[in-house]
Amino acid sequence: MLPKVILHTATSLDGRITNFPADLELYYTLAAQWNPDAVLFGSETVLAAVREDPSLEVPPEHEEIFTPPADAKTDPRPLLVIADSRGRVRCWDAIRKWPYMRDVLALCSSATPQEYLDYLKERRIGVIIAGEDHIDMRAALEALREQHNVKVMRADSGGTLNSVLLHAGLVDEVSVLIHPFIAGGKAAPTLCDPLNAGIPGLQVPLTHKSTKVLANGIVWSRYTAQKNRERP
Ligand SMILES: NC(=O)c1ccc[n+]([C@@H]2O[C@H](COP(=O)([O-])OP(=O)(O)OC[C@H]3O[C@@H](n4cnc5c(N)ncnc54)[C@H](OP(=O)(O)O)[C@@H]3O)[C@@H](O)[C@H]2O)c1
């Protein structure tokens, strides 16, 4: 069985997901309403956060990181799941200390370097291995449901991972917070960047669910996506 998956994205009026002042307080307040069992980040989203705050990358290591939280099974906070088959995220210590998550888990594939799997094992970070080269997200989500009882997952990811999830027909809902701001810039990432994931010609019909105008003219629109739909 698969979890319910919600893509939750803050965008500018011109559909960009970076280079504008996103209202993060509103983003996370709304994000909590799905009460997700897990939150999914793409590796590039984590690396972008590290570029903004390089101190994340080199935290002092201490005993705490080798000790997973004892109450992880009963803690109501979501599990933070990072898709990282290339072994690029090296700030798990800092991430494990974020107060919003009960624990962390990595998604990897058969192509993940053994050195990285050893690195995760040493830190007692849970791993799901799915797929040969890139992560097989369908298999990974099924494993999250079966092994970690993840029934609802929010994806706070960039356009690449969003595209993979949409293309695989794994998404139930798309939620966008449209900010009254034109970010501009041809190279800026958008909500859906399928070519980054090697997916040509992705088109996704959605059904409008609701639209509200919130504080400061931010428009919150929600759409349902057809799960397991035929791929174009
Ligand atoms: N405004 C917002 O709401 C919002 C939210 C999140 C992120 N962002 C921004 O978005 C940017 C990052 O977005 P992004 O699109 O570059 O990266 P991303 O979606 O965060 O990360 C790329 C992910 O896609 C995976 N991937 C790539 N090709 C794949 C394939 N064929 N099959 C399976 N998985 C595949 C990669 O896995 P591997 O690591 O295994 O290759 C990686 O985990 C950052 O600047 C961040 O700040 C904005």
Summarize it:
23% of the residues lie in helices and 24% in strands.
Outline, from the CA principal axes? globular
The CATH fourth-level homologous superfamily:
Dihydrofolate Reductase, subunit A
What are the low-pLDDT stretches, counting only 5+ consecutive residues below 50? none
Mean pLDDT: 90
Largest sheet: 9 strands, mixed
Secondary-structure element order, as H and E? EHEHEHEHEHEHEEE
- What percentage of the residues does DSSP assign to strands (E)? 15-25%
**Share of residues in helices:** 10-25%
How are the strands of the biggest sheet laid out side by side?
Answer: 5-4-3-2-6-1-7-9-8
What's the level 1 CATH class? Alpha Beta
Report on the architecture of this protein.
- There is one protein chain.
- The protein has 232 residues and is α/β, with parallel strands linked by helices.
- It has a single domain (4-225), classed as Dihydrofolate Reductase, subunit A (3-Layer(aba) Sandwich).
- Helices cover 23% and strands 24% of the residues.
- The protein has six helices and nine strands.
- A nine-stranded mixed sheet has the order 5-4-3-2-6-1-7-9-8, sandwiched between helices.
- Helix 2 links the parallel strand 2 and strand 3 (79-83).
- The chain is globular, with a radius of gyration of 17 Å.
- The chain starts with a strand and ends in a 7-residue tail after the last strand.
- The mean pLDDT is 90.
- The protein binds NADP nicotinamide-adenine-dinucleotide phosphate.
- The site of NADP nicotinamide-adenine-dinucleotide phosphate has 29 residues, from strand 1, helix 2 and helix 6.
